[in-house]
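Task card 7
Instruction: Convert sequence to structure tokens.
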Amino acid sequence: RLEERVSGRTEIFTGAAGVAVMQSEVRLDLEWIFRTQSDDDDFGIDAHIESVRGDLPTGRLLAAQLKTSKKKYADESAGGWWRYVERRHAEYWLGHSLPVVMVLVDLDKRRSYWAHINSATLRPAGKRFKIWVPSSQRVATAKQAWSELLESSVVDAIDRFEDNISVLPPT
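Output:
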């Protein structure tokens, strides 16, 4: 039991340190807003990131799932990492109303890496799924890519609205 408590506490500290690294990159490098999700209510989304234009928040949000490691990821390949996820999380992220990014935080380097989670980036891996997180996609330099991702999600939302409105009965 003591080992479980110590291990759990270490996991909590590791996770909190990962959040701090990513929060620093989002706030200082991107100059965007970073909000953590309550641990009690967490199911596959650890934080929300809001873009800022000038000094004003835009109302455009990304959802982020963070995974933190104190040492190099064991499944590192040339140029990035495979991250394995449970089917229930993959389904949740694919059905999410916000664009979702997987973020791997390397505590040794104090850096975060990301990949957009979608049907093209999630691959079946037995009973689970896996996603490739390239080492070239740093959170600290994601402003342009994330801005484009947010803009495309606004277009998708408008298209979904038009589709949804067309099936409603007349007033």
